[in-house]
Protein: ABC transporter ATP-binding protein
Amino acid sequence: MATLTLSKLEKSFPLGKTQRRVLHGIDLTLNDNEFVSIVGASGCGKSTLLSIAAGLEEFEGGDVLVDGRSITGPGLDRGVVFQSYTLLPWLTARQNIEFALKAAGTPAKQCREIAQQHLELVRLENAGDRWPGELSGGMKQRVAIARALSYRPKILLMDEPFGALDAMTRHQMQQLLIEIWEKHRLTVMFVTHDIEEAVWLSDRIVVMGQGVIDSTFPVNLPRPRHEEMSRDPEFIDLQHRVLSRIRQPLATH
Ligand SMILES: Nc1ncnc2c1ncn2[C@@H]1O[C@H](COP(=O)(O)OP(=O)(O)OP(=O)(O)O)[C@@H](O)[C@H]1O
Structure:
């Protein structure tokens, strides 16, 4: 069981001598095992929202709750994957995963076993001893996902994780993510600029306006989803409806 609740969130950043409000009254609950994508124009606050949910960014008002309990910072209940490759270059793929586990207090022998299991999960069981510099972008993101999942969080927070990948690799990564999501019953918050990706992956798409939640679209397409579905009129119609909300004039507050 893992629900993530963002309640009445308020966030500002300093702007010269004043404050610029970037999130205003955000209310959003991700239900257990729900896959929710967050989309919206550049600068509307998606990454800030995800960083707050991760416990990496402070906020002035509201609350972030995991299963009803307020969070006070990053925690093992939430795994995070960013767009930029965040592997430590002086550690191998396996050591990157083990490093996160050791930091969480896992005994060395167990670290090795769990790292191997998670390399297998992302189909990199034969690449564990390679250095990040020897891995493709897609492989690096697979290690980052393995690392984020290695301490068994029930919530996965992903900020444009496939944004830097080519179309083919991106599609393979989307399929892998869905497999993992189904197997591990994760609750996922997924920030993306790619509306087709959001429709393809999600149970629900949340469109942000400037610092606010503009609208929400349930994705009622059946699972498992197939590639041909992207030609389905329902799929295309939803894509257009989401896109037309993003193109609305920006809110002024
Ligand atoms: N550390 C910071 N200091 C000051 N302003 C910031 C900081 N981080 C973000 N901002 C501002 O907050 C607003 C929201 O930024 P955020 O990165 O959350 O938007 P976004 O929707 O994720 O954008 P993009 O889609 O381009 O990644 C922007 O106006 C940005 O300039």
Remarks:
- Strands lie at 4-15, 18-30, 35-40, 61-66, 69-70, 78-82, 155-159, 187-191, 204-208, 213-218.
- The pocket of adenosine-5'-triphosphate is lined by residues 13, 22, 40, 42-48 (CB under 6 Å).
